[in-house]
Specification:
4-stranded parallel sheet, 17 helices, globular, alpha/beta, TIM Barrel, 2 domains, 8-stranded parallel sheet
Length: 462
Amino acid sequence: MASYTPSTPLSARVAQLREALATRVVVADGAMGTMLQAQDPSLDDFQQLEGCNEVLNVTRPDIVRSVHEAYFAVGVDCVETNTFGANLAALGEYDIPERIVELSEAGARIAREVADEFAADDGRTRWVLGSVGPGTKLPTLGHAPYDRLRDAYQRNVEGLVAGGADAILVETTQDLLQTKASVVGARRAMEAAGVDLPLLVQVTVETTGTMLLGSEIGAALTALEPLGIDMIGLNCATGPAEMSEHLRYLARHARTRVSAMPNAGLPVLGKDGAHYPLTPGELADAHETFVREYGLSLVGGCCGTTPEHLRQVVERVRGMQPGERSPRPEPGASSLYQTVPFRQDTSYLAIGERTNANGSKKFREAMLEGRWDDCVEMARDQIREGAHLLDLCVDYVGRDGVADMSEIAGRFATASTLPIVLDSTEPAVIRAGLEKLGGRAVINSVNYEDGDGPDSRFAKIT
């Protein structure tokens, strides 16, 4: 791959992006896939891997470049790289997972070159958001192990950083455990490269009002914000109308900045297939409202949005500052499904202890005999009786605590609507639990011995 040296150093671009997000509304681009397909790439362009858009980064960079140029030409501040599927699951379906870094770097490099060309013309910095898509494997459902996905996301981001991305956008996430794997993988990649790029996360909330696996927006915020992300928001699945209440929640409770990249409405089936009905003017109206009422710092579009949609958004929000926000964070823990505040106005915080192998003979015997359904039923009993959190301890002499924790926490992740308290003195056992739970867990009963401490035993537990 030919080398390319950006005209402005990365550190300067990142500082400018952080300043822009803090002081004004930044506008990103719209749909990528439909614009690529509109240019009718051949099967040879896809290297016989039909539909693998990321391959176009190396076979037809001119097509990818033209999409970035179309969006920059209408005034957007930043574009996303053509790397949405440059992950283990998506490339694995084409039997090319070894090309994650190659295709990620190529996609970022194309966007970087176009951004720098536009910046050179008028002196206004343009930015590149490295797109990290979710793939099709949901670790909460056991489709792939957490650590394998995390390491593959790390390779994805390593390529994006090498290609010149200014920020990392983890987008269209459907499973909170998958989202956490993306964020941790991205952090590891940036640490390895010695850079600190803004890390932006956008979850996808379906028309049902939750993420695909049933997570409410509060559970997403509680689980993801402590990971040190710079922004949280929504993209895909719905139009702006369906996003409004979820954005309102984020505006009221998120410490981070907030973003939105909706579809051009909900798809409508017609004789020529599906189309998205939201007009450019309607998308611009929605974003103006979002900026004023919810203090959004980053706006853009997803499926069905075009350069014309974004041109009108740019014209509408140019010069606007995000509306005032006075967030009221609610410290708490979360399950995959819901958040539970630590402060209970009408009760004490009740932690169910009957799923503790040291405190419950019934639970211990079920665990020792491998009666996992009985273990789950004991958890459900405590939910019905009004517990707010569930204490999970599998420590027992002579047992493989990592295996037991992995087995039971994996079941509790989807069977329990309550957050889990991971109760163990063994870091490996705690890690096994965290790698199965998409929500935000509480860690209990940590002992330090002979020089051990939080830095030495638990700092890199994820």
